[in-house]
Amino acid sequence: MTAPSFAKIRNPKRKVDDRAVAHAILDQGLVAHVGFVIDGRPMVMPMAYARDGERLYIHGASKTRIVAKTGGLPLCLTVTHLDGIVCARSGFNHSVNYRSCVVHGTGRWVEPGAEFDRALWLITDHLLPGRNAEVREATAQEMKATGVLAVDVDAVTVKVRTGGPVDEPEDHALDIWSGVLPVTMAIGRGVPDGHTAPTRAEPPSLSAARRKFSL
């Protein structure tokens, strides 16, 4: 597999040509928004996903359009982390601090077999590290109802903004609060359903998810 390229973007000062940064953004995301065109109409769907090297996997019900009809079609996946609201002394100079990764590739239907099983394992493990060892195996009917797409990464665009507001020099003396309002994500304690024994403690996968995603 050839290494993906980094696409040219219009705002080069926020461009990051670092594969490790791209991987970190993807690995710390919970949802990828996947864009595709079906029957002449653009679609964007939020999807669970997982990264395996320079390949991404997404899955869903086998009869949904994104799974059943996009094999062989170009796809665009985006993952964004919002880190702060940048409050400037003018509305024009307000911004946000963020990390974003846009991936272009071609969807490929994954047939049942070793890669299919690995993809489902990776997607579950991405959201809840270690969860696969805590749950029962999928039934044949469940596997039949599930479809998996592989997306080999053709091109990546990474953009990052950090730091405070960029005010006009003449505005610095204005008596207006200016700075950054941090935005954080935290995963709370698990809320058991009515069928979980009161004595059953949280499994390790939940605390692993808190460690992975809480920033």
What does this structure look like?
This protein is 20% helix and 35% strand. With 215 residues, the protein is of the alpha+beta class. It has a single domain (5-185), classed as Electron Transport, Fmn-binding Protein, Chain A (Pnp Oxidase, Chain A), CATH 2.30.110.10. Strands 1, 2, 3, 4, 5, 6, 7, 8 and 9 form a nine-stranded mixed sheet that branches. It starts with a strand and ends with a helix. The model has no long low-confidence stretch (mean pLDDT 91).
Task: Briefly summarize what is shown.
This protein is α+β, with helices and mostly antiparallel strands and 215 residues long. The protein contains five helices and nine strands; from the N terminus they run E-H-E-E-E-E-H-E-E-H-H-E-E-H.
